[in-house]
Amino acid sequence: MTTPPPAVAELGHVGLRCHDVSRQLAFYSDVLGLTVTDHDERLGIWFLSARPDTEHHELLLAEGRDAPPGSRLIQQVSFRCARFEDVLGFHRRFREHNVRLDMIVSHGNAVGVYFFDPEGNRCEVYWRTGLVARQPFVEHIDIETDPEELLDAIRASVERHGATGFTEASYRAWTREQAVAADADTAEEAGR
């Protein structure tokens, strides 16, 4: 009898080191609505969860970030929403709190609002559409559009591009810019 190979069930949590843990804590609890489940001020760590009855923590905030502000350490941290209306609500809340947005897109299989936390970590709130689309699939959308019209447009786009994936030219250019900037940062680091 052979033992099945070990398998990961799901991502449990992400830990972020912070320059200003109090500011980050306020953002993730007040703006995103995560619940603080535990903390140890002596150690400078805070545990937060969107589902405290099921998952003790999905995000850990810790003091001690020593990378200079503007350093790119995380590509993104994504938070799944149960309803499309939640994504719409977060978009409104982000505007009310002057949260810096990155992009608002359809991934075909999801609708996402990308934003930056107070320390510049790129994050996303998203809702799964239930549609199947090969990735990458990045189509900028106007989230101010009537929700039913927007979802109809997303379905139509997935019908056209779902099997092959889709990326807009502006996203491809943005991705290249990120790679060039990362290469320049690496070269600068190597020269020190």
UniProtKB/TrEMBL annotation:
InterPro entries: Glyas_Bleomycin-R_OHBP_Dase, Glyas_Fos-R_dOase_dom, GlyoxalaseI/FosfomycinResist, VOC_core
Coiled coil residues, start to end: none
SUPFAM superfamilies with a match to the protein in the record: Glyoxalase/Bleomycin resistance protein/Dihydroxybiphenyl dioxygenase
Domain called VOC: residue spans: 10-128
Gene3D superfamilies per the UniProt record, alphabetical: 2,3-Dihydroxybiphenyl 1,2-Dioxygenase, domain 1 (3.10.180.10)
Signal peptide range in chain numbering: none
Record's protein name: VOC domain-containing protein
Taxonomic source organism: Streptomyces hyderabadensis
Lineage: Bacteria, Bacillati, Actinomycetota, Actinomycetes, Kitasatosporales
